[in-house]
Amino acid sequence: MATAPVAAAAAAAAAAxxxxxxxxxxxxxxxxxxxxxLRLLLPSPPPLRLRRRFPLxxxxxxxxxxxxxxxxxxxxxxxxxxxxxxVLVGIAIGVGAGGVVVTGGWVFAAAVAAAVLAGxxxxxxxxxxTAAAGGTPPPRYVSRVCSAICAxxxxxxxxxxxxxxxxxxxxxxxxISLLLQRGNPRFAQLTSSVFGLFYCGYLPSFWVKLRSGLxxxxxxxxxxxxxxxxxxxxxxxxxxxxxxxxxxxSIIAADTSAFLCGRxxxxxxxxxxxxKKTLEGALAGLAGCVLxxxxxxxxxxxxRSLLSATAYGILIFLGSIFGDLVESxxxxxxxxxxxxxxxxxxxxxxxxxxxxxxxxxLCYSFVRVALPLYGV
Length: 376
Prior knowledge:
By secondary structure, this protein is mainly alpha-helical. The protein has 14 helices and no strands. It has helices at residues 3-19, 48-53, 55-64, 67-103, 105-129, 140-160, 164-179, 187-202, 206-213, 239-265, 279-300, 306-334, 349-353, 359-370. Helix 5 (105-129) packs antiparallel against helix 6, helix 6 (140-160) packs antiparallel against helix 7 (164-179) and helix 10 (239-265) packs across helix 12. The longest helix is centred in the N-terminal third of the chain and has 37 residues, at 67-103. The protein is globular, with a radius of gyration of 35 Å.
């Protein structure tokens, strides 16, 4: 009777050994199964109609497809908003600037002086930013004095017509103040200060000379005959007004054409100073500038020669792109993308008016020297 339980226990042990190997006699705890991931078979991003009707389903589709699609969509939306803001602000600035140009006189000179003051402050902040790369900026009191002198130059140009004495005397005062400062004066401080007077004050003042200094009437301009007497009458339309309107419109056309065509078709880099500028964009800007100049000269009948209008357009484009590259060079040395944040969507004032800095002096010299009888 005792052998039966022993035999049964041995048989059970043998069966257990046969069913479970030795290393599974003490099985490990069960591993947790990974959660099932349900991937929705929806495009990422979903169609606009589906996103409007099922916003939660569309969001689930984007998250199931990975975060890259959502980030890309957000990036594109941000660029679209920035472009929209840039266009709206640009239109507002254009309308306001057009009214100031047509008004002329002290209103135009005061507007130029305000832009010069803001631009001079941004310029000296950019110069101060070069200190991180080993540069030697001028002291702050010198920067402020230079900015104030630059702001006075357009006003003095309107009432006195000459800037040579102002620039020479200002440069002498700045040089003396730098040489007599405490510490160790550096030549870089002198060059950046004097160039600031020339770049931010002297050159922009030529726009006042162009608008208000060329007071000869534009006799062939048809719009002058219907201009209201309360707004100046026919005598208000001078060569300076017509030349300024054509110059500003051509610069806008050059910048717009270069930006759009360079963004769409640009492949060949123009220069290492500004990697985003392309040869294709520059050629489009030249074509847009010359075409705008010729069309406006036909409408306003100034200058009367097609050859003069074409040369005027080419000169405007050269001044525009050269001013843009000079400002890009200053920003590159300062290690910044924008000169400031004064204008929403455009950056600083220098980012907006860099194409105008050299153009005013070139246009004024062309009308005074190259056009017989001021092109009338």
